[in-house]
Design a protein that fits this description.
- A hairpin with a 4-residue loop joins strand 6 (about 155-160) and strand 7 (about 165).
- The protein has 13 helices and twelve strands.
- The protein has two domains: about 1-155 and about 290-340, Isopropylmalate Dehydrogenase (3-Layer(aba) Sandwich); about 160-280, Isopropylmalate Dehydrogenase.
- It has a twelve-stranded mixed beta sheet, sandwiched between helices.
- The chain is α/β, with parallel strands linked by helices and about 350 residues long.
- The chain is elongated and about 60 Å long.
- The protein has helices at about 15-25, 25-30, 40-50, 60-65, 90-110, 120-125, 135-145, 175-180, 180-200, 225-240, 255-260, 270-280, 315-330, and strands at about 5, 35-40, 55-60, 70-75, 115, 155-160, 165, 205-210, 245-250, 265, 285-290, 295-300.
- The longest helix is centred in the N-terminal third of the chain and has 17 residues, at about 90-110.
Length: about 350
């Protein structure tokens, strides 16, 4: 299998710490081969700070898998990273963005099996002129730049316990009512159903759609949006042959018995989706981008500046992201058993 491309993320955060620690424990963890897109000198300094013996080798992507057993393969950025743990500087945003760009170029060229992105600090990126709301949207921009194709990315948070999709993502809550539409829900549902079938190998994905208002609008007495926007979208998805139910009250959608009845829950706004999965699977949930021609996963946590460089960060979510990326990347080969 081709290696995974792991991005540097925010260099002042815990992403580099986790990558180094995971490679150091690679045999114990049974981690698929990956290469880190970054600055070898910076990574060597971070490893020394953490007290980790991590030999590194600068490679091209097609050399990474063979090198992985004996050294951490690093694909250089051509950018010198001076950043110290917990202290973003002028190198932070350029390095983080360049790492994502290189990883996308590699996967589109067939050099990497999938992309795993370490967390970035959006405020640091924004201050440098970064124009997109987040990673997910930036990947779509890079795809359009490289291929001329526009494809809608969909963010799914996945864990063995629960998979959730926010239909609207990085919006202030007051803007959700203006942005949410039946068309957006239908388009999102189509992408989720397609990728659950293709990459997760679920033969007939079951979707549930959360209501926007309390009690899914209580038949219009708590808001008309569920009758006027959400219900027509559910009817359209059902008419297209997608197993879909809703709108359902969000407050009773995530208990254990309810979760057994669906494969993914589409939620109307960011926190409606992320609160339940971070409650159930805080340490091991994985961010998966659907709707793109390549696999991208990411740990479901932030940069944790306060513990960067201390060696105390929990690598569980990044480990899960690497394993899931490798698993999904096999979808084009012999059919693996369904994920559960």
């Amino acid at each position: 299998m081709r290696p995974l491309a792991l991005t540097l993320g925010e260099p002042a955060g815990i992403g580099p710490d986790l990558a180094l620690a995971i490679w150091h424990r690679r045999a114990e963890l049974d981690i698929p081969p990956f290469y880190l897109v970054g600055d070898p000198g910076f990574l060597a300094r971070r490893a020394a700070r953490l007290g980790l013996q991590v030999p590194m080798v600068s490679v091209s992507p097609n050399e990474a898998a063979a090198a992985f057993a004996s050294a951490l393969p690093v694909v250089g950025l051509g950018i010198s990273v001076t950043t110290e743990p917990g202290r973003p500087d002028g190198a932070s945003a350029p390095a983080a963005v360049a790492s994502i760009r290189r990883a996308v170029a590699d996967v589109l060229a067939g050099l990497a099996a999938a992309i795993v992105t370490n967390p970035v600090a959006k405020n640091i990126l924004y201050s440098s002129g970064f124009a997109e709301p987040g990673h997910t949207e930036f990947l779509s921009v890079l795809l359009r730049e490289a291929t001329g194709k526009t494809q809608k990315p969909v963010m799914m948070l996945w864990s063995p316990e629960l998979a959730v999709v926010p239909v609207t993502i990085h919006l202030p809550l007051r803007e959700v009512f203006g942005q949410l539409s039946s068309g957006l829900i239908v388009e999102t549902g189509r992408i989720v159903a397609h990728d659950l079938a293709k990459r997760f190998r679920i033969p007939r994905p079951r979707l549930v759609i959360a209501g926007l208002n309390p009690h899914a609008g209580e038949n219009g007495t708590l808001g008309e949006e569920d009758r006027a926007i959400v219900a027509p979208a559910v009817s359209q998805l059902v008419a297209e042959g997608i197993d879909t139910r809703g709108p359902l009250p969000a407050d009773s959608l995530f208990n254990e018995r309810a979760r057994a009845g669906y494969d993914a829950a589409l939620c109307m706004y960011h926190d409606q989706a992320l609160i339940p999965i971070k409650t159930l699977a805080f340490d091991h949930a994985v961010n998966v981008t659907l709707g793109l021609p390549f696999v991208r996963t990411s740990p479901d946590h932030g940069t944790a500046f306060d513990i960067a460089g201390t060696g105390t960060a929990d690598a569980t979510s990044l480990i899960s992201a690497l394993r899931l990326a490798a698993r999904l990347a096999l979808a084009d080969g012999p059919s693996p058993p369904p994920l559960s």
